[in-house]
Amino acid sequence: MINGRTRLHVVANGTMTGQRYIDEVLLPQVRLFRGAVGDKFVFMDDNATCHPILAVQDCLDSEGIQRFVWPARSPDLNPIGNVWDGLGRQVAGRNYPPTNKNTLIRSLTEEWDKLPQQLLDNVVLSMVRRVECCITLHGGHIPY
User: Fold this and answer.
1) Which part of the chain is the Tc1-like transposase DDE domain (predicted)?
2) What's the CA gap between 43 and 68, in Å, rounded?
């Protein structure tokens, strides 16, 4: 978000299923953040296989969370990819790259906290261009 960020939340054990996504991400994280932001909050995910399932959409609907719908297989439109790219470069460039899950989680968390806020602001501000592209792909209709 502009001028801020949440803590990085790492879900590290096992496969992320739709139910885990609901229980470990949507309800404890997204719902609370949406409550803090208010009615203008629009949630974006990246179309991972556990995201578009009916139970996830039902959960979002029941919580009054509006989801921005991206075209299938369009990671370049979702701005979080730019953030993950920057975060990955930072972790890869460390003097002592992570060698196991625990050091990877610690590295990701430390580098997340050090990402320049300007990078996050620029990604948010790029949404106008991304939405215009998405509208063009949807034949002139806003897809949410």
Assistant:
1) 37-97
2) 6
Q: Measured between alpha carbons, how far is 31 from 22 in angstroms, rounded to an integer?
A: 10
User: Which of these, 14, 19, 84, lies nearest to 50 by C-alpha position?
Assistant: 19
Contact assessment for residue 119 and residue 85, using Cβ atoms and an 8 Å cutoff: no
% of the chain beyond a pLDDT of 90:
39
Distances 44 to 36, 84, 103, 108 between C-alpha atoms, Å: 16, 14, 28, 21
What confidence tier does 76 reach under pLDDT thresholds 50, 70, 90?
A: low
Global pTM? Answer: 0.74
- Per DSSP, the residues of 97-108 read ---SHHHHHHHH
